[in-house]
Input
Amino acid sequence: MAKLYFYYASMNAGKSTTLLQADFNYRERGMHTMLWTAQLDDRSDDKAIESRIGLGAEAHRYQDGTDLWAQISAAHSVEPIDCVLIDEAQFLSKDQVWQCARLADEAGIPVLCYGLRTDFQGELFPGSAALLGLADSLVELKAVCHCGKKASMNLRVDESGAAVKAGAQTEIGGNDRYVALCRKHFSEALGG
Ligand SMILES: [Zn+2]
Output
């Protein structure tokens, strides 16, 4: 029985590294995988999926209206796919998460989704909310706060390192960065 998996974490927990390792494990056994990641703008990166430790791989890009069921099931009918791996899964729409569930249920393809649980205000992303509700298997990947506790939150900071408290959920092309913190230090950084 194929399953829908959601591997969730804060920033810097090694989500892309874990995805690429899983992909390698499948391909090492002669199996056929299909990689996807979000396309948020028109920038063309060297590698579609890049991990902080230097690994990378090409991937298909999904956008808002991409029908993952149609595209993946069509490819599957030409050459059977043993596993689909999706990076930046927090940006999936609710419809796309249902399409992933259908791939598991009707096409029998395991779908492994990797993404952030919450945004810089501690709110669920749409894709993460749908995955937390629908996935067969939830796996937390852990990053570490500067205090040594598990870092479950993502603080957005500006160029000077100051906490950003308001703004769009996804800042495209901006200079903001993210710091993974435990909930206590996230709360303190936002002023309680
Ligand atoms: Zn902390």
Q: What stands out?
A: The radius of gyration is 17 Å. The CA atoms of residues 144 and 151 lie 5 Å apart. The pocket of zinc ion is lined by residues 145, 147, 149, 181-182, 184-185 (CB under 6 Å).
